[in-house]
């Protein structure tokens, strides 16, 4: 306790030098928490958006369905097993039929995925209700990115060409009935949504689907022949993989930040031991043991970490809290860095993140503070009292 | 108890390595110091005065021979025991005062008692008493940088005496002081010696200090050249 009091007294009385180090360290501390909070926010926000708009509580995929290979779509459809039909009837699942097609916006030819979905579904957060009640025409729902890239607006006609299950090509005019704003690019870019029954008729695939999305918190009944259940761990693996790489990049940046702050502490400690050698000799002459002096100097350095936490908390809590509540606006061009995070990112700071960062800073600061003081163990007090170099 | 031996050296030799050779700083020194002595080690630079003080103060160890300080064999003493000996029984007064720069005068004086874990009320009482001894109660809140040389040395004396040590070792205590301050300091130390029976050992070649000594040990090339005890009244008496 006495060593602590002395260390704190020495540190506070060292004035500006202490506060500069503390401020730099607190910047690193706050930046580490912010960056990790941003990554956590990306995971949570992207996962939530994708679950709400696309993935629900998991999906059954037709055995031939591969979202990364459009050529598989030709064979990736089948009638629904009775258990899944029952879930759909109970409102616990919704079927999606996916087919290849081509649209001709502004005279251009553009390959698209035609996605049929029940307009009455409540499973996914998509404005599919807009697809209902359009007799005599094919209502079409587009995402805002798709609308922008095609130049289409609500009310615009759109020619769709497709090939049915028998290999026959056909084409019809459709009508854009809604442009939806969504952060989930995988339900937007290159996709045209239309009523499920309409697409089934167009593709000559009555009662068939490519995938079935379960409502959140619905247990998958079983695996069926030709239908594989994909849980959220599988469906969100790309998001997690991207965030993992972002974390590595952020980790490198954090390491650099922390390293710079630690260099300042290390430098201060080296300078302290060098400049205060006469004081070290005096402390020993007054009856302090060498290990006591080492503890004192290490604690002085380590207290930089504690003060940095306090200083960081003073400006970091309001700052991080503000960012968590209002979010960080992302530039339109960033498109959420390829993930479904929309135009505003909300960082998330959990207690484990804050405590982990805190421990990391305190531990590294203490180690860095201790290293330069080891030379005190080899010092001759008589030399130190004369102010000679150790 | 008045004449009990606090310090004794027996064939004390100290050598410092110098390249492949060694410089002999102390050579077969045999001395004894009793309680209440006011003694000085006198001699030119390099005669071994400071080295002998350092060894008595357990800041250094002999190369050969034996040194007993308050029953502790310095040649065998460990770091912790030496620290305890210095903290409880030996006060140091340095030529350059060696006050801790970030502490006030009060805190500097308080420091040895903090190390002894003395309760706060006793500690404060002892610190004020010590500051009163040296006449610096009005400077208690001053930092060393705000004190003159004489005041700094008086704070250093208060710091050394606050724990009521048996032995005070003063290494050239007046070297950085003018004549008036030197006499003031010496009078304070002599009073301490007289009233508290603290044993003082000086290292000096300052004539002003020598005038006050009741025992003068002259060192020459690390050997005791003479050891004189004065029974007549001295300058400060």
Looking at the overall shape, the CATH architecture of chain B is 3-Layer(aba) Sandwich
Please write the string of helix (H) and strand (E) elements of chain A. HHEEHEEEHEEEHEEEHHHHEEHH
> How many helices of chain B?
7
What count of helical segments of chain A does DSSP give? 11
Major β-sheet annotation of chain B: 6 strands, mixed
Uncertain segments of chain B are none
Backbone CA Rg of chain A: 31 Å
Distance between the termini of chain B: 22 Å
Q: What is the name of the CATH class of chain B?
A: Alpha Beta
**CATH-assigned fold name of chain B:** Rossmann fold
For the secondary structure, the number of strands of chain B is 10
Task: Describe the SSE topology.
The complex is a heterodimer of chains A (390) and B (237).
Chain A: H1 2-13, H2 16-55, E1 59-62, E2 78-79, H3 82-89, E3 93-103, E4 110-117, E5 138-143, H4 144-150, E6 157-163, E7 169-180, E8 191-195, H5 196-203, E9 208-209, E10 211-214, E11 227-230, H6 232-235, H7 237-275, H8 277-285, H9 290-326, E12 328-329, E13 344-345, H10 351-373, H11 381-385
Parallel strand pairs in A: 4-8, 5-7
Antiparallel strand pairs in A: 1-10, 1-11, 2-9, 3-4, 3-6, 3-10, 6-7, 12-13
Helix pairs in contact in A: 1-9, 2-7, 2-9, 2-10, 7-9, 7-10, 9-10
Chain B: E1 5-18, E2 21-34, E3 38-42, H1 49-56, E4 64-69, E5 72-73, H2 79-89, E6 90-93, H3 105-115, H4 120-133, H5 149-161, E7 167-171, H6 179-196, E8 199-204, H7 207-212, E9 215-220, E10 223-229
Parallel strand pairs in B: 3-8, 3-9, 6-7, 7-8
Antiparallel strand pairs in B: 1-2, 1-4, 4-5, 9-10
Describe the fold and architecture.
Chain A contains 11 helices and 13 strands. Chain A is of the alpha+beta class. Chain A folds into 2 domains: 198 residues, no CATH class; 173 residues, no CATH class. In chain A, strands 1, 3, 4, 5, 6, 7, 8, 10 and 11 form a 9-stranded mixed sheet that branches. The model of chain A has no long low-confidence stretch (mean pLDDT 87). With 237 residues, chain B is α/β, with parallel strands linked by helices. Chain B has a single domain, classed as Rossmann fold (3-Layer(aba) Sandwich), CATH 3.40.50.300. In chain B, strands 6-7-8-3-9-10 form a 6-stranded mixed sheet, with helices on both faces. In chain B, a hairpin with a 2-residue loop joins strand 9 and strand 10. Classes of the chains: A alpha+beta (390), B alpha/beta (237). At the A-B interface, helix 1, helix 8, helix 9 and helix 11 of A face helix 2 and helix 3 of B.
């Amino acid at each position: 306790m006495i060593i602590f009091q002395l260390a704190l007294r020495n540190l506070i009385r060292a004035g500006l030098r202490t506060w500069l180090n503390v401020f730099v360290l607190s910047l690193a501390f706050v930046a580490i928490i912010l960056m990790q909070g941003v990554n956590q926010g990306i995971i949570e926000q992207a996962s939530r958006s994708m679950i709400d708009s696309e993935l629900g509580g998991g999906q059954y995929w037709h055995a031939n369905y591969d979202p990364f290979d459009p050529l598989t779509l030709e064979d990736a459809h089948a009638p629904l097993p009775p258990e899944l039909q029952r879930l759909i009837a109970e409102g616990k699942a919704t079927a999606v039929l996916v087919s290849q097609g081509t649209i001709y916006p502004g005279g251009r030819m553009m390959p698209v995925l035609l996605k049929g979905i029940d307009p009455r579904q409540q499973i996914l957060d998509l404005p599919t209700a807009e697809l209902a009640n359009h007799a005599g025409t094919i209502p079409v729902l587009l995402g805002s990115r798709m609308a922008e890239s095609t130049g289409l607006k609500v009310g615009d006609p759109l020619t769709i060409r497709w090939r049915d299950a028998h290999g026959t090509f056909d084409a019809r005019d459709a009508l854009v009935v809604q442009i939806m704003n969504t952060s989930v690019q995988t339900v937007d870019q290159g996709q045209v949504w239309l009523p499920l029954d309409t697409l089934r008729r167009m593709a000559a695939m009555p009662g068939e689907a490519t995938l079935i999305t379960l409502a959140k918190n619905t247990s998958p009944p079983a695996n069926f022949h030709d239908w594989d259940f994909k849980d959220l761990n599988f469906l969100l693996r790309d998001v997690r993989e991207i965030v993992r790489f972002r974390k590595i990049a952020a980790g490198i940046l954090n390491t650099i930040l922390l390293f710079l702050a630690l260099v300042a502490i290390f430098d201060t400690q080296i300078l302290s031991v060098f400049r205060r050698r006469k004081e070290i000799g005096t402390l020993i002459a007054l009856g302090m043991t060498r290990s006591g002096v080492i503890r004192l100097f290490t604690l002085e350095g380590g207290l930089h970490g504690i003060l940095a936490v306090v200083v960081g908390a003073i400006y970091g809590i309001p700052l991080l809290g503000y960012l968590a509540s209002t979010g960080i606006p992302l530039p339109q061009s960033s498109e959420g860095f390829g993930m479904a995070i929309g135009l505003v990112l909300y960082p998330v700071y959990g207690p484990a993140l804050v405590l982990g960062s805190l421990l990391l800073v305190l531990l590294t600061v203490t180690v860095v503070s201790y290293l330069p003081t080891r030379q005190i163990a080899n010092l001759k007090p008589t030399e130190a009292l004369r102010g000679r170099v150790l | 108890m008045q004449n009990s031996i606090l310090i004794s050296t027996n064939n004390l030799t100290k050598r410092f390595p110098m390249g492949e050779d060694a410089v002999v700083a102390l050579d077969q020194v045999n001395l004894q110091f009793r309680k209440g002595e006011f003694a000085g080690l006198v001699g030119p630079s390099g005669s071994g005065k400071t080295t002998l003080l350092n060894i008595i103060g357990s800041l250094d160890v002999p190369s050969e021979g034996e040194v007993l300080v308050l029953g502790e064999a310095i040649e065998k003493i460990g770091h912790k025991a030496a620290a305890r000996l210095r903290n409880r029984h030996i006060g140091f007064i340095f030529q350059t005062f060696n006050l801790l720069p970030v502490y006030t005068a009060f805190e500097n004086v308080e420091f040895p008692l903090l190390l002894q874990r003395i309760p706060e009320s006793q500690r404060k009482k002892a610190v004020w008493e010590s500051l009163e001894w040296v006449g610096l109660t009005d400077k208690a809140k001053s930092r060393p940088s705000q004190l003159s040389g004489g005041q700094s040395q008086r704070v250093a004396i208060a710091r050394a005496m606050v724990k009521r040590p048996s032995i005070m070792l003063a290494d050239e205590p007046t070297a950085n002081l003018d004549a008036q301050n030197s006499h003031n300091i010496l009078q304070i130390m002599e009073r301490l010696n007289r009233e508290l029976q603290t044993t003082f050992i000086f290292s000096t070649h300052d004539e002003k200090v020598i005038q006050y000594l009741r025992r003068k040990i002259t060192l020459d090339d690390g050997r005791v050249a003479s050891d004189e005890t004065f029974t007549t009244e001295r300058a400060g008496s």
